[in-house]
Design goal:
It is a single chain. The protein is mostly helical. The chain contains 25 helices and three strands. β2 and β3 form a beta hairpin. α10 packs parallel to α13. The radius of gyration is 23 Å and the shape is globular. 45% of the residues are buried.
């Protein structure tokens, strides 16, 4: 009835949808969903001016006009009802899983490997954050256009026509307008050329120039929203934390256990941190091993370089609100693709014929375990308070989790409990700007105006552009 490829794609779509179908009943999450959707004037009042603003402002840190545009369209259709927003997230992940299958088919030439790789991507628990969180739409949408760009580039490489080239370039532009973390794509395309054994000549480099031009342009735009974040760490600290982040992210992909809500850096960033020292040693060994294996296979080096090119742009985002984080699950949504391609290439080069049945059984167990864990992770995003309390239990010293729990309690008018969480966040993260601002607002609400002014001034001392604190301070000083 169906061809093998069609059947495989139906299986992939069903797996991706079933794992995340439970998110369709979730509401908006009390962590940036308000900032990007429910309290975002650009989304809530859709008109020509709002659309123009989406293309001329940050969110407040990221330049994501296409992502904002999807929220605007959804708001026009359903307002602030969360179902459609969640449904579109799931739909994008299903589409991305199918696109990855088509890419794997072209690169690996073995459909059973492509099926396993796409299913692994569809149900990997690391993707639960990106799919279950409306605010992470940017990673899904960017991934959609990125995968379309890769697939179209493979078609262009087979039949080099101007039409296919222009479509490839436009798809890359759409990916950048969704989120600029794919600025490394021109180098990824060169990496694919090398992996596929294509000859490098002047045309190979010249055809990449427009892609490099877009990358440079959007890299400059992206840096405009990250100035403060990058200034919070010096160059040496950024390099050390980048190595730790990359190694830890590799561990998360290959051994997705004890996945947490956040991964915060506690203590000084230096060689005195054993995790950083281990990461440097491990990174050196793994890089040397990939180079040594190059005489037999390009796959290990290809996987590591692909992974690094897509995760490297996230190294500008370690500092958020004065708190340092060395990893995030959603940042691995695209980098893991290179790891899967490299892993499957090595598996495909071995002779497994006599072990095919036991290996198929092992693959099924891995996929089922990943799918179940991904489903469980996705359900955490259905209750904001439970999620943040779970995060605090995993990392009691996380100011972000305490702050966000305070936001949830504040909205439920549990002011004393919220103030306690804000104060805890400040104690653990003395530069946590939003915690000072929210504590100031809470103090103002219970009539402690003098204390509120002190907190709001501290917030503005740390971030003079903090509009919420400016407004609250004006109200407090007018009383």
């Amino acid at each position: 009835m169906f061809s093998r490829s069609t059947t495989a794609m139906l299986v992939i779509a069903a797996a991706a949808f079933l794992v995340y179908a439970g998110t369709l009943g979730h509401g908006f999450f009390a962590w940036d969903d308000d900032l990007l959707v429910t309290e975002n004037p650009i989304v809530q009042q859709v008109n020509a001016q709002a659309i123009a603003k989406a293309f001329t402002t940050y969110d407040p840190e990221l330049y994501i006009p296409f992502t904002i545009l999807t929220f605007q369209i959804e708001h026009l259709i359903v307002g602030n009802h969360p179902f459609l927003y969640h449904f579109d997230n799931v739909l994008l992940h299903v589409a991305n899983s199918l696109l990855f299958f088509l890419i794997l088919k072209r690169l690996l030439k073995k459909e059973y490997l492509a099926l396993f790789g796409a299913l692994l991507f569809a149900v990997h628990p690391l993707n639960a954050e990106a799919v279950s969180w409306i605010a992470a739409r940017k990673d899904l949408l960017c991934g959609f256009f990125f995968l379309l760009t890769i697939l179209q580039y493979l078609r262009y490489s087979a039949e080099q026509t101007m039409k296919k080239f222009v479509i490839t370039l436009l798809l890359f532009l759409a990916a950048l307008l969704s989120k600029a973390t794919v600025i490394g794509l021109p180098l990824v395309l060169l990496l694919i050329d090398w992996f596929e054994g294509r000859r490098f000549d002047r045309c190979t480099w010249q055809e990449k120039l427009p892609f490099f031009g877009l990358s440079i342009l959007f890299g400059i735009i992206a840096l405009g929203g990250k100035t403060q974040n990058m200034h919070d760490l010096n160059f040496f600290e950024t390099i050390l934390l980048s190595v730790k982040s990359a190694v830890f992210s590799l561990r998360l992909f290959f051994f997705p256990i004890n996945i947490a809500s956040t991964y915060q850096q506690h203590g000084a960033i230096g060689f005195g941190d054993p995790t950083i020292l281990f990461s440097l040693i491990f990174a050196t060994i793994i890089a040397a091993l990939a180079l040594w294996l190059l005489r037999w296979s390009k796959a290990p080096l290809f996987a590591l370089l692909f992974f690094f090119l897509l995760i490297a742009p996230t190294f500008s985002n370690f500092s958020r609100g004065g708190v340092i984080f060395y990893a995030d699950d959603r940042y691995l949504y695209l980098p893991q693709i290179g790891l899967i391609i490299g892993l499957l290439t090595m598996i495909g080069s071995l002779r497994w014929e006599s072990f095919r049945k036991p290996l198929a059984g092992m693959a099924a167990i891995i996929l089922l375990a990943c799918g179940w864990y991904a489903f469980q992770r996705s359900q955490l995003w259905g209750n904001s308070e439970a999620f943040f309390r779970h995060g605090i239990a995993a990392d009691p010293e996380s100011p972000l989790m305490h702050f966000n729990l305070g936001v949830v309690l504040h909205r439920e008018h549990k002011i004393p409990e919220a103030m306690n969480e804000y104060a805890t966040a400040i104690k653990m993260g003395p530069r946590y700007v939003k915690a000072y601002g929210n504590l100031g607002v809470a103090l103002l609400q219970i009539g402690r105006t003098a204390d509120a002014i002190l907190m709001l001034k501290k917030a503005l001392e740390l971030d003079p552009t903090f509009e919420k604190a400016k407004t609250a301070l004006g109200i407090a000083e007018g009383q």
